[in-house]
Amino acid sequence: MYRTPRLFLFAAPLAAVPGRAVAAGMPQLNFHDPLLIGQVVWGAVIFGGFYLALSRFALPRVERVLTNRRTRIQSDLDVARKAKAEADRASAELLSARHEAAEQARAHVERIQSEARASADAHAAETAKRLETEIANAETRITQSREQALSSLSEIATSTTQDLVTRLIGTQDEQTVASAVKRVSA
Amino acid sequence: MTGEASVAAGSTIDALGQFELHPVLGHLGEALRFSQSPLFMLIAAAVVLVFLYVGMRPAAVVPGRLQAAAEISYDFVHDLAVSTIGENGATFFPFVFAIFFFILAGNYLGLLPFSFTYTSHIAVTFGLAIMVFVISILASIRFQGVGFLKHFLPAGTPVWLAPLLVPIEIISFLSRPVSLSIRLFANMVAGHVLLEVFAGFTIMLAGLGAFGHVLAVAPIAINVALTALELLVGVLQAYVFAILTCIYLREAVAH
Question: Transmembrane residues, as ranges (chain B) (predicted)?
């Protein structure tokens, strides 16, 4: 990928730079240089120390922080989950309590309604009965009054007729008048 | 790259002078064979350790930027080791981490002016590769006993092919440290020679007067681009070295 242009770029100046640098050789390959071997020995020592410092101190420290965070997040999540479960339970209780209360209220309303209906019915029936008796009484009274009135009607008619006849002709025959009235009123 | 040594007297560019080793600390360094290469190894190791130490000092549950960076580098190499090597990956994780960051820090420190790139020395990269090689052989013996030798005859091969295949497998096995070391060494050397040569062009062109001053901008622009490329190559080569280490170790611990 990026390698090809890079190698080309690398080759170009090497071709452009004549002689000396290439002829002198790479310092990295000058194995007679005691410093070259020295850096390998030093490198081994330094890398060893670096490794020990990392594996004993630096990395376990990072590990501890990461573990702490993981456990803390886990415990927080557990607490949150527990709280949610409790809230769910409380909410379910509340719902069922509300449901129960609604049921009770409905039953209560129905009972009161039926009671009211029953008492109204009873009241109406009583009133109707009373009215009926009163009507019956009134009818009896009316019948009596009418009979009374009807029975006294011929008497009044007879006496009125007798008076009229007396005024008209000065005399009267009770028997005749009575029979005449009877004839007319029949 | 060592800027001051970039241009030799006259018109030639000393592209390889930057790889020369010089003793530091005067006579003491000379006596201890202590050149700038081990010095930069020390600096690299210190930079990585300080980065981890300072980064993880808050040890916060919600990390800051530096702590997040330290944790990401931990997680990155940890995932690499565990996913490549397998269940025994955690055992080798500090080793892979040390390899990756030793090389990465070396590559990146080498990009700073006046610094030294110890990964541009074949002796260093070969030393690292041999270490990986020896450790993978030791791990093979530890996890599989002498039975690991049967890997030199791939499973399911007809027996009559063995005289041909076994030497091939042995050669490919032995060439691992060579390819591992030369890949890193060559990439680093190529990149640094290029940077040096183009920097040299700039100075040579600048000597040509006003016209050269204008032209001298071009190699600088190329060097800027090359530096970006070297940043990519630096992390890529460290990654390649680390993942090949993981692959060799997986073969060592696999049954």
Answer: 39-56, 92-110, 122-143, 155-174, 194-222, 228-249
